[in-house]
Amino acid sequence: MHQPNKIVFYLLFILLIPFGAFGQGNEIDSLKNELKGHSPMDTIRAGLLIELANKLTYFDPNEAIPLMEEAISISKKTDWTLGEALSHRQMGNLHYVLGDNIKALDQYQKALALSHKTTDRQLQSSLLSNIGNIHADLKEYDLALENYHSYLTTSQEMGNRADEIKALSNIAIIYNDTERFEEGVSYLEKALSLSKLEENNLFIAAITNNLALAYKKLNENEKALFLYLEAAELAEQINNKYIEASALNSIGKIYLLFNDYELAETNANKALTLSKEIDAVEWQSDSWEVLSEVYEHNKKIPEALDAFKKHVQLRDSVVNEEKKSELTRKEMQFKMERQQAVAQEEIKRQQLVKNGYLIGAILLLVFSIMGYFLYKRRRDALEKRKLAEFNAKVAETELKALRSQMNPHFIFNSLNSISDFISKNDIEQADDYLVKFSKLTRSILENSEKKWITLEEDIELMKLYMQIEGLRFDNKLKYHVSVDNSLEPDNVLVPPLILQPFIENSIWHGIAPKKGGGNIDIRIAKDGTMLKYIVEDDGVGRSGQNREEKKTKDSYGIKITSSRIDIINHLKNTKGSIELMDKAEGFRVEIKLPLELQF
């Protein structure tokens, strides 16, 4: 069994695996009985072990691992090279399903080395595909392309059109992921032509759907719409609800661009129905997003709010999983690099030792050189480890900063406030709140991948955040933002929403408990080569807070911002800082960052 191609065909294989599960169970029981009746440690037993492990891959991969260890042992003892290669490949498949890409890659590479000692080119071809999948998962796109191109060449030489289609599609998706859309379109069109020659409707539907996405990225929306419609129709014919739901959501989004809200609603509703049938959470989120825009355009504010709530809830569950996957990917990549570094060090060390025996006359010099290289390797290894730890800290800090900005309490409090306005028949206020809230959340998500934005954009986000909180406090909150004349807000670059935790603390722990109104004063000025933020409020101050409030104010928000500033200091070699000061009435925060300019 090959490991299925993940890049474009993961839609297909995920749907195909569960079908015939009952038959698989019977086959597994039958193979287990055959193994019990065949005890000799020969190639027949090894073949049965490989076949049984294959059947167990998606049912119980942990049970299959000892079977492969036995198959590898038998194949070595009987000098069955092909069996040993097949066993290592199957072991790689098991680790891949279990999510351990490092062990999977190691097994695939062992299998590939053994396959060159056989005449089985199909085996070599499948292993190139598997290795390409691992590198694609780790976002090592150059290595992924290298293996996929080798896979393509081998498939073409063997005349295996199905594998050729998969190779072309995988190469195309790598190009699309790296925003080389013209090249991606070229390979997808080749794959589509071959799929039509094969009359493989499943491949045609999946590739057409991906081709439509590429054209949409190229802003060729008319062509993208035509292809999405074609993909949806074909997916419906072959009863592939996963591809059909994806295509219908995309069709709905394009109709929104064309301001055809009726057709957008029709396609979104159909996609939602299909998504629920197959429990595709991501597609359900997309459907609700389209419907919320349709309802908002049609002035159906309660329906728009309800749809938007459902979109946010489903999207957040998907985003959290993606963030976890990204952190896992980085951790696995670090482990792989560390293993490779250790392996290279061992090879070099052995070579140096061997050379030492050969040139005994200059033994002292050889030992000196070895000592220097060992020291250098250790230093380099430590540097790599520090870099990996720093990158992990960056990823963790970015995720925490995004979570603090997209605080669930803030989101649902805002949505409840909108709902409250609606229940009071204050549609105008509800609409104003919803527009501001939508704009803020969209801006936060768009800026979550950016390291820097202009000061002008950041000020607008802070103002929008304070306006929303002001509406919730019945305009009890007043604020003022001033920028020194020596600064050009549209030319100064700052980390997005660096002040948000402190503004939030001022509102909730300073002004909210205070009787009457409250003010927040934000001043931004140049301080030598640094940019200085000052945030002051006239709230109750820390003396008027209970112990838990103090702990929250003095730890969580500061910890996130301190981590962000530490990262900036490390990258820019600067001395950014945070300083907290109690006032007679209220609280003051001073933040210093390196002054960054666009031009």
From TrEMBL:
Q: Where are the TPR repeats?
A: 85-118, 165-198, 245-278
PROSITE patterns per the UniProt record, alphabetical: TPR
Name the UniProt record assigns to this protein: Tetratricopeptide repeat protein
What residues form the membrane-spanning segments? 356-375
Domain Signal transduction histidine kinase internal region: where? Answer: 397-477
Keywords, ordered alphabetically: Membrane, TPR repeat, Transmembrane, Transmembrane helix
Q: Which domain of life is it from?
A: Bacteria
Q: Which InterPro entries match?
A: Bact_2-comp_sensor_kinase, HATPase_C_sf, Sig_transdc_His_kin_internal, TPR-like_helical_dom_sf, TPR_rpt
